[in-house]
Every structure is written in C-alpha cells, then in structure tokens.
Amino acid sequence: MRRATLLASAAIGGLAFAITFSAVPEQARLLMGLQVPAAAAEPAAAAKPDSQAEGRESHGEEGHIAMTGEQVEASGIVVAAVGGGQLLRHATVPAVLGASQDRQARVTPRLGGVVAEVRRSLGDEVAQGEVLAVLESREVADAKGEFLAAGRTAALAETLLARESRLWRQRVSAEQDFLQARATAEDARIKLDLARQRLLALGLAEAEIAALPR
C-alpha cells in the first residue's frame, strides 16, 4: 500500500514538474541548463548536408557509376569491339513472306500464238536459256517457209550463175547473160539473208535455223 502511494506521489510530482517547466521562461531554463541553445544545435544540422555531399561524391558524377574491377567482373560486364554477331533477344512480329524482287523476271514472248506446252510452274527456279513454254505461231511458220523458199531460190541462182560463167568463158553465151545470172544470184542471196534475220528476230537460235530442212 505504501509502495502504491509512493508511485502515485511520484507521478503527480512528475506531472507538476512538467507543467511548471513549460511555464518557466526561456531565459530561466537556459540558466538552469534545461534547454540546449539553438546555436549549439546548428552545427549538427549543418553537418548533415556535408554527409549527403560525401555520399554523392562517392557515387561519382551524375549519369556515371564508378565501379571497381571486381564489381565489373562480378556483374558480367564485357567491353568488346563492335562487330557482327548473334542477337540473344528475339521478337515475334507479323510479316509477309515473298520472293526476292531481284530474282524475278517477267518474260514476254516476241510473237503471238497458241501455248502448246508449259514446262515450268509459278515459283520454279529456272536457268538462262531454259525453255519455259512452247508456242505454236503462224508467224514463225510463215517465216520458216519464206526462209526455206529463199534458200532454194538462192541455190538455183548459184547453179545458173556457175553455168553462165562457164559458157561465157567458153565464148558460147553472151556477156549479158552472165551478168544477168550474177545479178539474180546476188538478189537471191540477199533475200535468203533477210529471211534468216527475220527468224533470228522471232527468237530462233542459229542451231535451230541450221537444222531446218533445205
């Protein structure tokens, strides 16, 4: 009972002291040594920004991080020259696949006709000189016929020229007949060459022209 009375008295005394202390003027509290002067607290507050500045200096300039060699090695940072390599990051995006425009060509026939045979399909790879389709053209048929006729005419004209040349040397025929035969043979050779050039313009090769029947 006595202990409880002492505790209650101490609590009441402490409360009274607190009330009394708050009512004591500031100068009196300074004289009693119960309050720390503001000037004494300023150095501690001023020391705080210095510690922050030191922390900033330890991290280096703004935008840069100072690291030791051990930290660089532990982080897996590697310095290397710029070059080609494999990307470790993959991205999935929608795309459209198509053939290379540099490896495509549109082939237009030099003449009209009926398609008799198609030997390649869309998307097939072809080589230069390979036959893609076979056309049946009336124009080609007429050109071949003209070439064959010109060839026979030229051959006959050469035969007549050889005969007239022999007779003229033997003084059997007149020179005029020899000159006429020579002009006819020359004209036949020109027509044969024109017919051959027409076949070449239509796309026939030299071997195909040479293989035509005479």
From TrEMBL:
Question: Cellular component per GO?
Answer: outer membrane-bounded periplasmic space
The biological processes this protein is annotated with in GO are:
copper ion export; plasma membrane copper ion transport
Q: Where is this region: Disordered?
A: 43-62
Q: Which domain of life is it from?
A: Bacteria
**InterPro entries for the chain:** HH_CzcB-like, MFP_Cation_Efflux
Q: Which Gene3D superfamilies match?
A: 2.40.50.100, Helix hairpin bin (1.10.287.470)
Name the Pfam families for this protein: HH_CzcB
List, as start-end ranges, the regions of compositional bias called Basic and acidic residues: 51-62
The chain positions of domain CzcB-like alpha-helical hairpin read: 142-201
**What keywords appear on the UniProt entry?**
Transport
Enumerate the GO terms in the molecular function aspect: transition metal ion binding
Coiled-coil residues are none
This chain's protein is named CzcB-like alpha-helical hairpin domain-containing protein
Q: What is the species listed in this Swiss-Prot or TrEMBL entry?
A: Pseudoroseomonas cervicalis ATCC 49957
Q: What is the lineage of its organism?
A: Bacteria, Pseudomonadati, Pseudomonadota, Alphaproteobacteria, Acetobacterales
